[in-house]
Amino acid sequence: MNTGANQTIRCTVNQCKYHEQAKNLCSLDAITVGTHEANPTQEQCTDCLSFEVK
């Protein structure tokens, strides 16, 4: 699934193994977004569930 920079998924999380360092892009074809809240009402309540630490 890791195929190089995906121009449609922007990311600034340098600690993720899918982060394309020089471009602030994700190298995954698609990501999964989830939440850690029962009723999310703000962007801070959402998480990238595709994150993996380097």
Q: What is the average per-residue confidence, as pLDDT, rounded to a whole number? A: 93
SSE string, helices as H and strands as E: EEEEE
Catalogue the unreliable spans.
none
Residue share in helix: under 10%
The biggest beta sheet reads: 3 strands, antiparallel
Number of spatially distinct domains = 1
Name the shape in a single word.
Answer: elongated
Q: How many β strands by DSSP? A: 5
Q: Can you count the helices?
A: 0
Outline the structure in words:
It is a single chain. The chain is mainly β. The chain has one domain. Helix content is 0%, strand content 39%. The strands form two sheets. Strands 1-3-2 form a three-stranded antiparallel β-sheet, with no helix packed on it. It has a two-stranded antiparallel sheet with strand order 4-5. It starts with a strand and ends in a 6-residue tail after the last strand. The mean pLDDT is 93. The chain is built from no helices and five strands.
